[in-house]
Amino acid sequence: MAVAEEGSVTRAAQRLGLTQSPVSQGIKRLEQSIGSALFERHPQGVTLSESGKLLLPQARVLLRDAYELQRLADSSNHNSSIRLGLAPSVPVPCATAVAQQLASTAPDFHVREASCEQLVTAVDEGTLDCAVIEEPSPTGSLARGQLHEVPRILAGVSSKRLRGHNLQGYTLYDDTRAISPAAADRLSDAFFSAGLSPRVESFPGRAAFSALVAAGKALALITPEHAQLWPGTFLPGAFNLRLRAVVPAHHLSAPDGRDLRALIDSALRESTRTLEAMVK
Fold first, then answer.
1. Considering the entire predicted model, what is its pTM?
2. Per residue in 257-272, pLDDT tens?
């Protein structure tokens, strides 16, 4: 499935943490077993053959069932674990609160950071038990928690300087598009509606951004826990960071039997209130 999703054996191998050779050999053995080619090879990569398109949905179901069977087996052996996914944009206080809440439900806790698309796929396939993603993001058939909003600050420009300025000539250092393209489009609409038009580039890191702010005309979207790091101005609600929990629709309980969505929503609710209090 990784090869089908990536459109490349090389990228699929990187995603799986393998070299290209075992992935190619695995595809070859599978094709020999079913007697049909699953992929069509091109100079740019691979695409699913007609047989591959026919078998992919069933393969997803089988993989999801296999992960669920493994989870149930682990649970019966008292080796319960909770596997949490977090979007990189989740504020530190929110990530901490959710982790503390979930770690209390099982003896073994794991966390993974990835883009929203990757997190949704992982929860759907059963390699993660739950995730906190940035909204809006497509979630397919997953069960969704409540929407939680965090105020944002435009770091690098004071409210006085921002007033009456369209930010032309400024660079916004922001990674939202890599995290959730739909959320990036929402932000673009918010900037446009506010009459602001900064150029957008990837965030270079905290130290480099600090140097760029000192040099002038560098901006970033940050949440209140970082307000003391750089000069900035609080943005209206249209720019709020929006977070939501997702869990499998067929498995809504934590290892200790409590409602998984309710646990995450409780942690996000309290942590976002703390962040909101910082702007008052």
1. 0.71
2. 889 999 999 999 999 9
